[in-house]
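Worked example

This section walks through a single chain of length 143. The input is the sequence exactly as stored; nothing has been trimmed or padded.
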Amino acid sequence: MTRYISSACRCSFAISLGINLLFASSGVRAEEKPEAPLLQFHTTLKLEIWSLRNKSLRKGEKRENEQKREPLARFRVDVAKKRPLYGVLELELTDKMTRESGEKKRSQTKLDLTQAYIGVNIDALNSDLRMGRWLYRDEREWL
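Given that input, the structure is written out below as tokens.
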């Protein structure tokens, strides 16, 4: 079931891992205060598979099956995260595939820009100003 991971996801994971290793912070002595790196890279890989066998409960040889697969690769870059002027860029790559009995496989690949904003943290006024597009994710589901 989890054997299917598109080559784009594998390639993007390898690139993201290489970038994270390249920009990893070096060791800092205890008396020095570590400074946050200018660029931080985050990667999320997700695979959703849904399969329904013989969905009409029909006897005989004619069975109706349905499959859906949707791998997702999310890339996020935080720029100057703990500084007065900061920014975020996030991209999502999805490759949705749907297949039903007796029909051709349908596939749809999308690259979405989910977040892109710059912000100003004003400590004197205890406020934060953002300009752009951002997203609040809530993974909770109703019962």
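What to look for: Confidence is low (pLDDT under 50) at residues 1-11, 21-30.
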